[in-house]
Known about the structure:
The protein has helices spanning 17-20, 38-48, 58-66, 115-128, 170-175, 189-192, 205-216, 229-234, 238-256, 270-281, 290-306, 316-319; strands at residues 4-10, 29-35, 53-57, 72-81, 88-91, 106-109, 136-139, 160-163, 181-183, 198-200, 221-228.
Amino acid sequence: MTKLALSLACTQTDRAAPILDGRIAISGCDVIPLPGVTQTIFRQVLDDKAFDIAEMSMSSHLIQVDRGVRDYVALPIFLSRSFRHSAIYINANSGIKKPEDLRGCKFGVQQFQQTVGLWVRGMLADEYGIRSQDVTWMNGGLEAPGGGERLKLDLPEEISLTPIPATETLNGMLADGRLDALIATKPPSSFTSGDSRVARLFPDYQSAEKDYFRKTRAFPIMHCVVVRQSLVDQHPWLPAEVFKAFVRAKALALDEMKQVNILRLTLPWIAETFADVQNLMGGDIWNYGLKESRHEIEHMLRYAHGDGLTGRHLTPEEVFHPSTFSLSDKI
């Protein structure tokens, strides 16, 4: 059988690298590896339909599903997960000392639809009673002017979202107090440079995130994998084979963290750190599959509808390809 030549665009992480570098094969396929930056990949998928298989923002995919856009189908392969208490920054002179103080503040985001914001807003509502409509949202570039939403949004009237001035940055506006708070996937330069005007809302964010996991058992999902719909129509076996390959790649990455004869990662005590995380989160710290991650997906669907990103409350089965419903990431 002639193999399919398929492009694969995703971030070069330990759990994707074995497929990108050829150590793990997708059965029936020859992979054309295209490692890249996720924000660029997302826009190329949404605007140009540029890749056969790609890493994709979960929130943008939910918006597309809600709108009936079926250029790609999603697989429950979660290449990015991250706790996000660490992603909330505040102006130290704003009077904000605890999450409840965020009510009525001006809150910056690069994009309202980013999955990091989806989880932060949901967490603030669930844990602290701060709803999306309780603050004023402002979007724009973090370190350079510009930016904007990947997909045009039509938010409910009660949620206020306006762009920052075209010549300004979120980083600058947070530092000088024109923003009270900021959600960002990486620390703004004002914070990393030691500017005393900028701080984290949760200084001990690791403890906060561990407590959040103990309470909710949720490890926030950021990205999934999508496959071109036309390919799946022609080759119904493809989603399952892609899923199985990524499961094997993840297993290899997790196994390498346990090797102590020669450390595979450039970090002392990595095996001990991995064991500590397993003690908290369980044996498989990074689940793939609909069954294994249903509760986290249901959180996201509730948050997306509450934020007005989706016009109705989607079900998990609407989000992923049916052939993956029963697949497990247990090898």
